[in-house]
Specification:
OB fold (Dihydrolipoamide Acetyltransferase, E2P); 723 residues; 18 helices; 5 domains; 7-stranded mixed β-sheet; single chain; 5-stranded antiparallel β-sheet; alpha+beta
Length: 723
């Protein structure tokens, strides 16, 4: 087929699919319709591929050819070091697989338009990039490597599968081992590497703090506040004035405390509690009135919205608001007047909110308490601690009593509580990890958690029934396919979950967690149940919170560190003052969807940066323990190996190639690694002895090898941090 025939056939196919009477066809059906002979089928296929590459036709989800508008898909390209990639499309369950020769020059994080291709790869629909819509990755953090008259930047993000070429005149004098930020000037084409210029040298990779600074830059976390924002923060008063107190409910004589971690400096919530003669609890949750000092659309507000949330990394905090505010006038410090928004709830003996009031208040905290101290008073019955806080002990005991009622009420309706240990990493003055401990919840942390939950529910319900624009915290129901897989798997252990059609009530998951408590399979099933859940997010629609089993929920209690809370405070105050008229309602209806979407994105960004920092510090810590032996629990199994979690929460991989006594394969249906000849199995939740083999700090991974019992005499009780 010559070029003229080739173009003619392309035009004929386009005319066919654009005809209003056209019914989408697969390749074989179209070839028969157009009377293509068997000898011409290969040439016909090349015509279709050319049209796909040009974006003039596309393949729909059923493998049939359609007009571009009917099958246009836009998503985010995620590259792989091996050359192929994936495209994530919002609302689509599975990513699309992009073969190496179909990436169209797309770079990591590009927004791309794709066309579906016939066929699948590892259960994923294949596709090709037909158009790059936006280059989203403009700067990359990596390690500079000098090579004669030029250099390369090796990206920290290993999903970027290529080095960045840097000409000597664009290196800013960087030397091998420097961590740098490189700005891309070319994304590479025709087999050439991407090119860039160094715009910032962070320091040598071994310098203290440079490792975490690299993560800060990689995630685009803003550190410095603008001069305007800082100037506004500096103009905030140091004390509450008489004018500020005017018109507010005065609660300064009400006994109240803050309960936080020992090192907390931004105290944004206080609690009060007393019981009346009828036996009703009067719980007050008092939240710093940050919106009084951060006006809408001000430089401070724009900065807070851009950040979305405070970010807590191992050696630093990147705050949403300047410390002048968060640690000063907005912090509910002991013994001083502070402005607050208070949710004052009357709660009966069943843990039900019988009445409530949301009000602007002025408060004065009696004592700044720590979780450790309250735990000593309530759980440890420490006499010295109880004596030191003698006047507050009755209130703390009442708080424990009420929190138990609230928890019981949540449990009754089906609220799910996954209690996986989090990490607390202790660093020396140079930022090196010296110990890793699991952070455990105690009676005091649970009290505050319970009180904040009920306040958030109460505020959300109040504004839902007012039918006013609002920002809700929502958590969708789990994906039915994942629930069906979980249901099928747990039947192997004699458990079951009841479903209504394809839907699952949270009560069923909670019952399952209750039944497996303290069993050998608890860790296994809990993790699988967690993986079946979706991620919570911010929305303007009140669709409920599956995990908490509640119809109404929002984030009201942390306006110092979360923008949605600050936004909600403004709405509350306007409603209290009767200012939510038609114009302001229209303003919020227009503004809030973007606030909710952006806040969800910045929350995910913060979580990813925090997770990467923890992985990095865990890898650094385990570098000092190579060769040591520990007992751990199998926390994950994949076709490439077995993940084992140690008591200090460090997770490492036993690669399948390191299981040398047999050929092992992954039995996906049973979540097991199984030996082909011996039949030996490794299961989730099983305890195993492992030896630390290697650590890759750049990949932030830890490699283990299995340590058999006959080799482990005298070393079975070793633990990280015992030294």
């Amino acid at each position: 087929m010559d070029q003229e025939q080739f173009e003619r056939r392309k035009n004929l196919i386009c005319e066919l699919v654009e005809d209003e009477r056209y019914t989408p066809m697969k390749e074989k059906e179209m070839a028969a319709f157009m009377q293509v002979s068997g000898e011409e089928r290969d040439a016909f296929r090349k015509v279709l591929e050319a049209l796909l590459a040009e974006g003039r036709i596309q393949v729909n989800g059923k493998g049939r050819y359609v007009k571009p508008d009917a099958g246009r898909l836009v998503g985010t390209f995620i590259s792989n070091a091996k050359g192929f990639g994936f495209v994530e499309i919002e609302g689509r369950k599975e990513d699309l697989y992009i073969p190496e020769d179909k990436t169209g020059g797309a770079f990591y994080q590009d927004e791309v338009e794709v066309a579906l291709l016939p066929g699948q790869r590892a259960k994923r629909q294949e596709a090709q990039v037909v158009r790059i819509l936006e280059r989203r990755m403009t700067r990359i953090v990596g390690t500079y490597d000098h090579a004669g008259g030029f250099g390369f930047v090796i990206p920290d993000n290993h999903k970027i599968g290529t080095d960045i070429f840097v000409a000597r005149e664009h290196s800013m004098g960087a030397v091998t081992g420097h961590k740098v930020v490189v700005e891309l000037t070319s994304y590479g084409a025709g087999g050439h590497k991407p090119e860039g210029r160094v715009v910032e040298i962070l320091g040598h990779e071994n310098d203290p703090g440079v490792d975490i600074l690299s993560i800060v830059r990689a995630y685009g976390l803003p550190e410095e506040f603008s001069e305007k924002a800082l100037d506004q923060a500096c103009r905030a008063p140091e004390e509450v004035s008489e004018a500020d107190r005017a018109g507010r409910m005065d609660l300064r004589n009400l006994q109240m405390v803050t309960i936080d971690g020992e090192d907390a400096k931004d105290l944004d919530d206080a609690v009060s509690l007393y019981r009346d003669e009828e036996g009703l609890y009067h719980l007050g949750v008092h939240i710093a009135d940050v919106s009084h000092y951060v006006q809408e659309a001000s430089a401070l507000d724009r900065e807070a919205l851009a950040r979305g949330t405070s970010v807590y990394l191992a050696d630093r905090v990147i705050p949403m608001l300047p410390h002048r505010l968060s640690n000063g006038i907005c912090s509910l410090n002991q013994g001083v007047d502070r402005l607050a928004l208070s949710c004052l709830m009357t709660i009966d003996g069943r843990g039900e909110v019988a009445d409530y009031q949301i009000a602007e208040t002025v408060i004065r905290v009696d004592r700044r308490m720590s979780y450790t101290s309250v735990k000593k008073i309530l759980a440890d019955r420490d006499e010295a601690e109880r004596h030191a806080y003698e006047a507050l002990v009755p209130m703390f005991e009442m708080m424990e009593e009420l929190a138990a009622l609230l928890r019981k009420r949540r449990h009754k309706r089906g609220s799910i509580d996954f209690d996986f240990a989090e990490s607390r990493i202790l660093l020396d003055q140079n930022g090196r990890p010296v110990d890793i401990k699991p952070y455990e919840r105690n009676v005091a942390t649970k009290i505050i958690e319970d009180f904040m939950l009920i306040a958030n529910e109460t505020v959300a319900q109040h504004f839902f029934w007012l039918e006013l624009p609002f920002v809700y915290r929502t958590h969708e129901k789990p994906d039915p396919d994942k629930v069906m897989k979980l249901s099928a798997f747990i039947q192997n252990f004699g458990y079951h979950i009841k479903m209504t059609g394809t839907e699952l009530h949270p009560k069923e998951l909670q019952k399952l967690l209750d039944r497996i408590a303290d069993t050998d399979e608890e860790a296994l099933i809990s993790r699988l149940a967690l993986r079946s859940m979706k991620q919570a997010k911010y929305t303007v629609e009140c669709t409920g919170h599956f995990g908490l089993a509640c119809r109404y929920y929002c984030h009201f209690t942390s306006p110092i560190r979360r923008y949605p809370d600050l936004q909600i405070h403004r709405i509350i105050k306007e409603q209290l003052h009767g200012r939510l008229k038609e114009g302001r309602i229209g303003h919020y209806e227009k503004k809030l969807p973007e606030v909710a979407s952006h806040s969800s994105k910045t929350e995910r960004r913060a979580e990813e940066a925090e997770r990467e920092t923890v992985k990095l510090k865990k890898a650094q810590y385990m570098e000092e323990h190579i060769g040591e032996v520990y007992e751990g629990v199998i926390s994950g199994i994949t076709q490439w190996g077995i993940y084992v979690e140690l008591p200090n929460t460090v997770e490492g991989l036993i690669h399948v190639a390191a299981l040398t006594d047999d050929y092992y394969y992954y039995d996906e249906s049973a979540y097991e690694m199984r030996g082909q000849d011996t039949g030996r199995t490794f299961k989730l939740g099983e305890r195993v002895a492992v030896q630390v083999k290697d650590v890759d700090r750049s990949l932030r991974t830890v490699d283990f090898v299995l340590y058999e019992e006959d080799m482990a005499e005298g070393i079975t009780d070793a633990r990280p941090g015992d030294r």
